[in-house]
Structures are given as C-alpha cells and as structure tokens.
Amino acid sequence: MESQEKNIFEQLEVFYRRKWLIVSSVVICTALAVAVAYTMTPIYRSTTLILVEQQQVPTRYVTPTDETPVSERLSTIQQQIMSRTKLEQIIKDFDLYGKKG
Questions:
Q1: What is the structure's pLDDT at 58?
Q2: Residue 27, SS3?
C-alpha cells in the first residue's frame, strides 16, 4: 500500500515539475490544429442512389409508355444531372464559389 501511495505522489511530482511543458505542448498543438482547420480548402462530395424498377403490372393490363432499356434511361438521367446548366444552377443556389474579389 505504501509503495502505491509513493508511486502516485512521484507521478504527481513529475507532473508538477513539468506542468509548463505539458500545458504549452497542449496549447501549441491545439493552436496548430485550429490553424490547419481554418486554412484547409473545404471539399464537398455528394452521392445518391437512383432506383429504377421494371414495370410491375403485366403488359396485358397496362401498355408501358416508355419502352427504352434501363441502361439508356440511366444514361439520360446522368446526362441531365451532370449537365452544365444544372451544375451552374446548383452552384448559384448554394453559393459554392462565394464572393470573389
């Protein structure tokens, strides 16, 4: 029991002797982390999942209005989403470039 108390007091004494070294290290590391966080360029990434299902009602009851293959429909959707006009509208709506100048 006595050795544990002595060991704890020794550790506290070491901490007390080195308190300014420990405190300054913590402050410097925190300041560096904040500086790096503010100077980094923000990167935004977004993903989505589009689910395309085949017609569930039999064709003998309902005639399908769109008979293009799924791969072509997905290609068309991708072209519409990634078009320059759509992307420019998103950039303007969310002010992604901010004020320059």
A1: 76
A2: helix
